[in-house]
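Go through this chain.

——
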Amino acid sequence: MKRFAPVLTAILSLMFVLAVATAPASAAKGNEMSGTWKCIAHGGSQGDTPFTLYLQQNGSTVTGSVSSSLGDAPITSASFKQNVLQIEIDGDGNSYQLKAKYSQGALSGDWSNTEGEKGNWTGKKESGESH
C-alpha cells in the first residue's frame, strides 16, 4: 500500500496539470471579453434593443462586431482595461460609444450616439462560455 501512494499522487498531479493546460483560453485572466455576449440597451428611441457582441480580446485590445435588429457592424475600436470595456461602433452615419464595467461575469454601463441619444446597457456572456 505504501508503494501505491506515490503512484496515486503522481497520477493526480498529472491530471491536475492536464486539466489546467487544457482549460478554455477564454477562462484565462486577460481574456475575459472573448466570446459571444447577449446584451440589451435601454433608453433609445427604439425602446429596449437587444443586441449581440462578438468579441475577441488580445491583451487590452478588443475586436469584433455587433448584431441587432438595426443591422450588423464591425467594432471600430475597443479596449478592456481595469475591468472597463469601451467600444466605438460606426454605422449608418451614426457613431455609438459604449462603456461598461465588468463584474462577476457581466457587463453593465452606459451608451451614447452622435444623434444625442443615451441610455444604459447590460450584457452577459452566452451560457457555456467561460468568464
User: Anything to note?
Assistant: The radius of gyration is 20 Å. The first strand starts at residue 35 and ends at 42. Residues 33-125 form a domain with the Lipocalin fold (CATH 2.40.128.120). The chain has a mean pLDDT of 81.
